[in-house]
Amino acid sequence: xxxxxxxxxxDGVGPEVTAAAVxxxxxxxxxxxHEFHITHGLIGGDAIDQTGKPLPDETVALCxxxxxxxxxxxxxxxxxxxxxxxxxxxxxxxIRKHFDLFANLRPVKAVPSLLHASPLKEEVAKDVDMLxxxxxxxxxxxxxxxxxxxxxxxxxxxxxxxxxxxxVEKGFELARLRRxxxxxxxxxxxxxxSKLWREIVEEKKKAYPDxxxxxxxxxxxxxxxxxxxxxxxVMITENMFGDILSDEASVxxxxxxxxxxxxxxxxxxxxxxxxxxSAPDIAGQGKANPAxxxxxxxxxxxxxxxxxxxxxxxxxxxxxxxxxxxxxxxLAGPEDRALSTKEWTNKVIDELDLQSVSDCIMFTYA
Length: 366
Ligand code: IPM
Ligand code: MN
Fold this sequence. Notes:
Layout: E1 2-10, H1 14-32, E2 35-40, H2 44-51, H3 57-64, E3 68-73, H4 88-98, E4 103-109, H5 122-125, E5 129-135, E6 143-148, E7 153-156, H6 161-177, E8 181-186, H7 192-204, E9 212-217, H8 218-227, E10 234-237, H9 239-250, E11 260-264, E12 270-274, H10 291-303, H11 308-323, H12 341-354
Parallel strand pairs: 1-2, 1-3, 3-12, 5-10, 8-9, 8-10
Antiparallel strand pairs: 4-5, 4-11, 6-7, 11-12
Helix pairs in contact: 1-10, 1-12, 2-4, 6-7, 8-9, 10-11, 11-12
The chain binds 3-isopropylmalic acid and manganese (II) ion.
């Protein structure tokens, strides 16, 4: 069965890590006899330079004609001073909104062979296995009015009942597939939107008696991510809180460079991207860690294409490369030789053929 995949490399290290992920996708196609039709498009600063827009119409049309999208990263110092409508980040926000990708899934799982690089003590970091479910198309990022004058500025935090309901349901559904616990994060002691959020979680939980639910204020959640991150299973939260908390949680595993994400809606279409940014300081040098982009392809196979064993094989291959002691510069210890992006990707490709499907049971992202 043929699947159409749009690849939007974007800026900075985006082209290097998406190229690595596409290679992996091609190996999966060969091994499992799938056909993936891959077409590249422009987004972000690269698109601004070539077309004058961060999300050109041709890119939207390409994604509309695709079954899933793989994105690299957007942004960089070159476009820092362009007017806000012409910032590379606008391209990312516009594509999320255009395709109604309301559910952003950001799994954070400790891998034993990376714990040496965690800023937390090993005994605190080792049990981390959480899934942050971030609302992605509402809240402060999109609320109107949003404007500034010389001496004042306004952003609007607005959520409707429907917007909250669908993300909360998604969180409950995912918790059922995991350890059955939901932590709903809000700022109910201050914000009206959070009061509505909490009310909806209370209503919805009646339909999921098998799921344990706790509410947590966002400041307290930020603290607990450091003191006891292993206590979280599924965390559901609004857009801005999710943005901040997912960066915080991501470093627990040792490097943000290993964390993938999925931005999905209800019909299987999705956009998959590493959670790291464009890292302009190392762009073009072959130093980027492609693990997050490669694991984003695994999430694509799982969520958009229902190819669970293929996804699992990728995850196992990535873990095997880490276990064998191969790291890119972000994770290499003083005694290790840091591998280049391409060298590390080739290690994963070698492992892909070695992993047996029948042993593959530990897929994290379900
Ligand atoms: C992310 C990024 C984006 C966001 C930026 C680049 C607009 O930080 O995907 O988390 O804030 O959502
Ligand atoms: Mn972010």
